[in-house]
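Regression test case RT-17, inverse folding.

Input:
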């Protein structure tokens, strides 16, 4: 069977297009301290982020208070404090990954359509993309919206494919966590694990990564070769 060229590349945001680890840790630790808990090491957030804010709150409380030593009211209160802090300056401490901008520009030059799919709120996702990438870089930007299932549900990835006029076999899903690999696999897309992000090769391969890229440059070269 003839191999189908890739027409669409869908990217996760945190840990894939933008290095948000310090940003997440900054707001999360401030929320913990204001709620009477201890701050956590920044690197801990590599394994807590990625499943949405409620899951992040539970992970923080598990680490700071102890397993089972918190209530759902504690989760709600911590989320309220975190949201207030985050909404005051959502662009705080964000950093670019070296090579990402040139990688996405290279993919555009190859004729691929590009999209972002994030579990961050939709308005914040759009704001971050505007900060780091020139206008028109991405054909679709899709953050978390009310009533729409978050990743790893495949709904967002499938919607992007439909709106960009591509079959799932023509789409790649690129991300740095198990959630991303599960999202792409559930949508029937090839997945690429981004090793420059938050998680390691073992986690990505265990969760349906079709391919692994050690750097943005490696990803660009691989896609160029696949489509040649």
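Golden output:
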């Amino acid at each position: 069977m003839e191999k189908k060229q890739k027409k669409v590349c869908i990217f996760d945001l945190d840990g894939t297009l933008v290095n948000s680890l310090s940003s997440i840790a900054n707001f999360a630790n401030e929320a913990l301290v204001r709620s009477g808990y201890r701050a956590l090491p920044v690197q801990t957030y590599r394994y807590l982020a990625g499943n949405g804010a409620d899951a992040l709150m539970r992970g923080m409380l598990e680490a700071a208070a102890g397993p089972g030593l918190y209530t759902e009211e504690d989760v709600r209160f911590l989320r309220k404090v975190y949201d207030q802090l985050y909404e005051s300056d959502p662009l705080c401490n964000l950093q670019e990954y070296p090579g990402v901008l040139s990688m996405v520009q290279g993919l555009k030059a190859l004729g691929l359509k590009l999209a972002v799919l994030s579990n961050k709120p939709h308005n914040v996702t759009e704001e971050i993309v505007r900060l780091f990438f020139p206008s028109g870089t991405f054909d679709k930007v899709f953050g978390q919206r009310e009533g729409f299932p978050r990743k790893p549900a495949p709904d967002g990835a499938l919607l992007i494919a439909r709106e960009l006029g591509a079959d799932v076999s023509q789409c790649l899903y690129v991300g740095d966590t198990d959630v991303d690999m599960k999202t792409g696999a559930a949508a029937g897309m090839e997945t690429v694990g981004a090793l420059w992000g938050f998680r390691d090769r073992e986690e990505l391969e265990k969760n349906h990564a079709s391919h692994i890229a050690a750097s943005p440059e490696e990803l660009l070269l691989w896609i160029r070769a696949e489509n040649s």
